[in-house]
Design a protein that fits this description.
5 helices; AB_hydrolase_fold; UPF0227/Esterase_YqiA; 6-stranded parallel beta sheet; alpha/beta
């Protein structure tokens, strides 16, 4: 299994989280400069459309890109505090020329204490953008803020792959 990990703004995949992901497959974790490239989703699509990407995992701005890319590639996604309701904060162009295959499964993890990307704003986004072909699991962690602790990452990753395989 090939896992594409998309980090958040000015972030990267930690060695501890990479180790967790490697239990489930080969991890591809490119460095992404969202501020310099407003066409990051198109760039990611062009780069990975011919590779055998099975799932996308993204956090914050990586969750924003991961949501759109998963729908373009038609693969499952695990998204932590995706920046979906804040499209104007950092310019990112959502391509309209790519066929929409829709992800079949998405697990969304939201932090109840997140002051950067509020859970209620993401819930509003999903309520307005439900895809008919996608099964969603939304987990709201009441004590979770914007940063994802390794223990939560491990627990949610395990749950995601368990749901994905059934």
């Amino acid at each position: 299994m090939n896992i594409l990990f998309l980090h958040g703004l000015e972030s990267k995949l930690s060695p501890e989280k990479r180790t967790i992901l490697e239990k489930y497959g080969a991890v591809i974790a490119p460095y992404l400069d969202y501020k310099s490239n407003p066409n990051m989703i198109q760039h990611l699509f062009d780069t990975y459309q011919t590779q055998n990407i099975n799932v996308i995992i993204g956090s914050s701005m990586g969750g924003f890109a991961g949501y759109h890319l998963a729908n373009n590639l038609g693969v499952g996604a695990l998204l932590y505090n995706p920046a979906l309701p804040y499209i104007g904060t950092i310019e990112q162009i959502v391509p309209v020329n790519i066929a929409m295959n829709q992800s079949l499964f998405m697990r969304i993890v939201l932090g109840g204490q997140d002051t950067v990307i509020k859970a209620k704003d993401n819930l509003t986004f999903f309520a307005q953008n439900i895809a008919a072909k996608t099964d969603y699991t939304i987990a709201i962690k009441k004590d979770l803020a914007h940063q994802i602790p390794v223990a939560v990452f491990e627990e949610e990753t395990k749950s995601f792959f368990k749901e994905l395989c059934y």
